[in-house]
Design brief:
This protein has five helices and 17 strands. The chain is α+β, with helices and mostly antiparallel strands and 296 residues long. The model has no long low-confidence stretch (mean pLDDT 91).
Length: 296
């Protein structure tokens, strides 16, 4: 594990009926979801910033103190956080960009930490079919108002995302005056793994509660920082394309220190023979983290 650089996880999750990530309205009284075009079809997706927000929320729900939002102190500046990665796990793992107004005529300064956790959008393999959920809001009727009719775009399908953690950049580097102890680094990465294992989306959860935690995953601890499974995990015949996975494992055998495959096995008809359960797969990743940070 001494020469490890990154841990990458690519996973599939299913949504039976949801309205995951909101978009600008395309028509009055219709609540839209984010979609991208491919040929003549549109495919729903959840943005990487939406997933990172969901991960922050899970960390907070699990008891981690998280950094508060702070308004910019310069014109047109973006809001930021407290920018204290030594104190807050989210400032460490997800980074920040802050600007300070300069005194008199002096130029301002910028304080940044590039996130060691990289997240891809959560992309659907299934196209948007134009389904809408019809609703009527009667809350103001007794007060003399009229019912408000609205519709919400909904979708069902199989989604894929990838998360890559630069292990050698957690708890040190930009934003740190002193490197964190290895035990704290391991605790933070295992906290992130727990957030991924228990991930559910934020927004619209009162009407469209959605579980976006992994139902199939392939992960590896690597000597390089390459999300090698990002484009090769694809569905096939009720399961996953095992041949493509095996080809990738063979292509990168020099870069892969160890790998694990986990699945909710009854949900897929075709799986790699060495698939573990989701719980066993996360336990193996936790063991990698301990071996990398603590046991060296």
């Amino acid at each position: 594990m001494k020469n490890a650089k990154a841990l990458t996880i690519t996973y599939l999750t299913t949504v039976s009926l949801g309205s995951l990530n909101g978009s600008d309205k395309e028509a009055d009284n219709i609540v839209s979801i984010k979609k991208f075009s491919k040929g003549a079809e549109q495919y729903p997706y959840g943005s990487s910033q939406w997933l990172r927000r969901a991960l922050r929320d899970q960390l907070a729900a699990m008891g981690w103190p998280t950094s508060e939002g702070v308004s910019a102190n310069i014109a047109k500046g973006a809001s930021t956080t407290l920018q204290k990665p030594d104190e807050y796990i989210d400032d460490d793992l997800f980074g920040f960009m802050g600007t300070e107004k300069g005194d008199d005529e002096k130029k301002g300064t910028a304080n940044k930490r590039t996130s060691p956790v990289r997240v891809s959008p959560l992309i659907s393999f299934d196209k948007y079919e134009g389904d809408l959920d019809f609703g009527t809001n009667y809350m103001g009727v007794k007060a003399g108002g009229t019912p408000n009719i609205f519709e919400t775009e909904i979708h069902a399908g199989l989604y894929r995302s990838t998360i890559l953690v630069e292990l050698d950049r957690v708890g040190c580097g930009e934003g740190f005056e002193k490197e964190l102890p290895v035990t704290e680094k391991a605790k933070r990465v295992k906290g992130l793994l727990s957030a991924i294992k228990n991930l559910w989306s934020t927004g619209r959860q009162t009407r469209f509660l959605s579980d976006i935690s992994p139902k199939f995953l392939i992960a590896a601890i690597l000597k390089v920082k390459n999300p090698i499974f990002l484009e090769i995990l694809v569905p096939a015949r009720g399961g996953v394309n095992v041949g493509l996975i095996n080809e990738t494992l063979a292509d990168y055998k020099e870069e892969i220190i160890d790998y694990v495959i986990g699945a909710k096995k009854e949900m897929f008809e075709i799986l790699p023979e060495d698939s573990l359960t989701i719980g066993e797969a996360f336990q193996k990743m936790n063991d990698w983290v301990d071996a990398y940070y603590v046991l060296l």
